[in-house]
Amino acid sequence: MTLSSEPTAATAPESKYFRWMQLAMGIVCMAMIANLQYGWTLFVDPIDAKFHWGRAAIQLAFTLFVVTETWLVPVEAWFVDRYGPSIVIAFGGVMIAIAWVLNSYADSLVLL
Fold first, then answer.
1. Which tens digit of pLDDT belongs to each residue from 71-97?
2. Taking the complete model, does pTM exceed 0.70, yes or no?
3. Which residue, among 39, 64, 65, 61, has the nearest Cα to 48 in the 3D structure?
């Protein structure tokens, strides 16, 4: 049996730019999330005009969304460590899709 010093696919070294690419992709993803997160402020006045719930109540609902989204990150990280990123991302995608559909039918502030 001879040992080869050539790297195989399983042990191939990462490109020296791989971490920079990861960082850039992370920044792009966070910018996309932030645009969705803070873009909701554009909908406060139209929602209030249609349902007359009051700007403060609508903004409180969005604030609860943002707080829940950001403060649960340690829990999300635990799920990634326990179940792996693929399952957590798939679950998150399904939950986001359900939330968007549910928000499109929201006719009460609690449902929103």
1. 888 998 899 899 998 898 888 888 878
2. no
3. 61
